[in-house]
Specification:
about 250 residues; six-stranded antiparallel β-sheet; four-stranded antiparallel β-sheet; 10 strands; about 45% helix; elongated; RmlC-like_jellyroll
Length: about 250
Amino acid sequence: MLQRLELELRSAPTFWRCEPSWSWTSRPLADHLLWCVMDGRGELVLNGERQDLHPGICAVFQPGDAPRATHDPHRRLLVFGMHFQTTGAAPDPRWGEVMDRELLGVLARTSDASYRRQDALGRRQAELCLEQLIALIWDAVHTPGRRVTDTAVDEIARQLRQDPGRDWTVAEMASKASLSRAQFTRRFVAQFGMSPAQYLIQARIDRAHQLLTESGMTVTETAAALGYTDVPYFSRQYKQRTGRTPSQDR
């Protein structure tokens, strides 16, 4: 299990586009090294194990590691990384594939920009980004096998939570995930433990609770905002999932 980390940066967070003739044969590292591939293609070798490099492949090397790497000069690597000190931060194996490329990019850019402000707050923000990046890599190492379709299903679930009052259909959700209705439903249940329809109802009830307790909207207004044309039906669903009536929570 990944524990709360105490981190100390030993180098500035940095992006570098490897030169066409670049290759890397590291001496045994004196500290930890975060190493994330943002673009390009190549190969990484550590302790006799090989890993193809492409966007999303990230590693946390520990002191004593001596990685080697090469790349395709026509598809040059763009790498983000930094040296740091901590205890117990390196997963085993050292690398994993972070599927959320958007979050990876945001954390890397934020870390770089924050550190270069050269103030205490910027350094702290860079350390927090590093901690989150390590957590992402740890998750990628210890929950392997997630596919692009799993990420697509996650995205649909996020959209349901963001806009539960919309008139969603399972056919539309499946289309967004580029899956058949049956495939989408199976994957959704496997990931969230309930069907898309039940997940949507729960998202609506969660939002209803927030609106009733925080917005001042009436029960009728809340039901209508979340797509319910039958207020008694809304009230029954609300009580089934919360144990209270909407009026009690308002």
